[in-house]
Amino acid sequence: MSTLRDIGEFGLIDHVTRTLRRTPGVVEGTGDDCAVLRFGNALLLATCDASIEGIHFRRDWASPRDIGWKAAAGAISDIAAMGGEVRYVLASVACPADSDSTDIEEICAGIADAVESCGAALVGGDMTGSQAVIGIDISVLGEAVDGRYLTRAGALPGDAVAVTGFPGLAAAGLLALQRGIDAALLIQAHLRPVPRLAEGRWLVNHPGVHAMIDLSDGLLQDLGHIAERSKAGINVDSDLVPLGPALNGFDSILCEPLECLALSGGEDYELAIALDPALAPAICHEFAEKFGSPLTVVGTVESGWCGVRLDGQEPGHRGFNHFGPA
Ligand SMILES: [Mg+2]
User: Fold this and answer.
1) Relative to the CA of 76, which of 34, 56, 101, 170 has its CA 20 to 30 Å away?
2) What distance in angstroms lies between residue 320's CA and the mean position of ligand 1's atoms?
3) Rounded CA gap, 234 and 163, in Å?
4) Residues with Cβ–ion distance below 5 A, ligand 1
């Protein structure tokens, strides 16, 4: 018998999806941040994401409202990853019968806050019992405006690879919470991530951008998904990965190399893209002007091999994998 620990999160997904039949109207099925579905004249983007107490959140570190916000923001981020606009959200919450009713109402209010912050509507869901822990599942429906969307599959050999903002801040915030360190900006990054919807919409309209993903599991791991779907190699230059000013002064306190947090820390919900190298300097410049936050080239797409490398070497640790070794 093989266990989930043996095959890992991505092995399980491969196994479950291998037997699925393609259906008319499914433009992009499993394997990307969202499914892309033909719906009349529109292209619908559809995704769902679960957050489970003890795995995704701890109630002693996060308020119920933060927990709801983060669950919804993480799911909405998959629409940003395709360059779409969020339209409707449904939320299911499972909780033990002895839960404080105010806490559950606050979780739902946090979900509603995140949904409304991006101009979408919370239109339904489900409340159900659970034995021990709280679970939240968020389904998001969005639209590929004018039929435009980006997948993980479009990276071309020779492309530059770039990332928005400063990956690693959320992981640093988690460490700060675990170690009782006062670091408001980092903790905010961990508890209240903001989906990069406007950034995704802007990038999808640049013909020089070929592939996109949001960073949920860590920069190297998520770039690995672009590499795999694009059947290419991505080499990341560690010297190019930007370290956020919010990390200044925390390198010794967090007791963790900041570079490792930026390369493999999860839940930043920044966007990573592959883009035409000739257009990269202009796109990065315009992006920074428009959003007041950097778009930084951190690597290149290569041919002749598939996967992700760090400074030309196989990386030791890429990021988060449910069921994988701790
Ligand atoms: Mg994603």
Assistant:
1) 101
2) 13
3) 13
4) 33, 78, 81, 214, 216
